[in-house]
Amino acid sequence: MLLTLAWGALFFPGLFALCTWALRRSQPGWSRTDRVMISTRLVSSVHAALATGSGIVIVRSCDDVITGS
Q: What is the CB neighbour count within 10 angstroms for residue 23?
């Protein structure tokens, strides 16, 4: 569990930094606020997609989601 937490603590800030860097290189006319807003929305979308995927895996693997059996 701690390994998953560590990977998440590295992955999401790294994705944010990569997005802001890529936007700075590809769209030099955009303000810092625009780059941060787009990067934040992209990271949030990736986070939501991964959370939805893990929820689907959990629901499909359990007969009774409440008790976990």
A: 19
- In 3D space, the residue among 4, 15, 18 whose CA is nearest the CA of residue 54 turns out to be 4
The pLDDT tens digits along the chain (69 residues) read 899 899 989 999 999 999 999 999 999 999 999 999 999 999 999 999 999 999 999 888 888 777 766
Q: Is the pTM of this model over 0.85?
A: no
CA 43 vs CA 16, 22, 50, 53, 64: distances in Å? 6, 13, 11, 15, 32
